[in-house]
Design brief:
By secondary structure, this protein is of the alpha/beta class. It has helices at residues 16-30, 37-40, 48-56, 63-81, 91-100, 113-123, 146-154, 169-177, 210-213; strands at 3-6, 105-108, 131-133, 162-166, 181-185, 200-204.
């Protein structure tokens, strides 16, 4: 048996630039920050509340304030990205073939349900996924393995039977911590940034890559 677990942002869709832009706008225009693109981009992982803590410290916002800021950031992101929303090349065919072969698939993302619903429902791909693990479903986000281990459990798959699709080093690290192999989509980061993770099987620009096709 094998199972596929997909990160979403930057892995299924090429949108990390829009997340970074939305955060930078919120940080600098609304919260009085003065953060450069280079300072914001490396922080684009984990839960939204964790991003806010990394940028402003643990005592700046209450939990309620972070929830509201998270929602405001996602509204900005969705409004700007919606005209460009599409799956990476080859992913539509990959999902359909995997589905026809009975390969169980899950999403393991640090996104909040509001964002996962935005992608799945606008692209009409929810039916491909047996399980969805969002930021709201875990205590500890990537690189902790909880997201991927929970997804595997929901698929009734052992960790060593799962292949994770990711785009960021912290995601590859989470897969490694979960005892899973990973395929990295190079939409967001360069190959050399994953040098510390021997669990990475392959790097691909998109899902038309022959290695990915051969997984089916």
């Amino acid at each position: 048996m094998k199972a596929f677990i997909f990160d979403m942002n930057g892995t299924m869709i090429h949108d990390m630039e829009y997340h970074t832009r939305a955060w930078q706008s919120l940080f600098n225009q609304e919260l009085g920050g003065n953060f450069s693109w280079e300072e914001v981009k490396p922080q684009m992982y984990g839960k939204n509340s964790e991003v806010l803590v990394r940028m402003f410290g643990a005592d700046r916002f209450t939990a309620a304030e972070m929830e509201q800021l998270s929602f405001e950031k996602e509204k900005r992101y969705q409004q700007e990205f919606l005209p460009h929303l599409q799956l990476l090349p080859g992913l539509t065919e990959f999902l359909e073939q995997a589905h026809q072969q009975g390969i169980p698939m899950a999403i393991g993302s640090a996104a909040i349900p509001f964002n996962i619903d935005f992608v799945l429902d606008n692209l009409n791909i929810r039916h491909y996924f047996t399980a969805i693990v969002s930021a709201d479903d875990v205590v500890l986000s990537k690189p902790h393995p909880e997201t991927f281990l929970k997804a595997a459990a929901l698929l009734n798959a052992a960790p060593n039977e799962c292949i994770v699709f990711e785009d960021v080093p912290k995601g590859a690290e989470a897969a490694q911590n979960a005892g899973m192999k990973a395929v990295v989509l190079t939409t967001t980061h360069e190959v050399h940034e994953f040098a510390a993770f021997p669990n990475v099987l392959h790097f691909a620009h998109d899902f038309t890559d022959p290695f990915i096709k051969a997984l089916l």
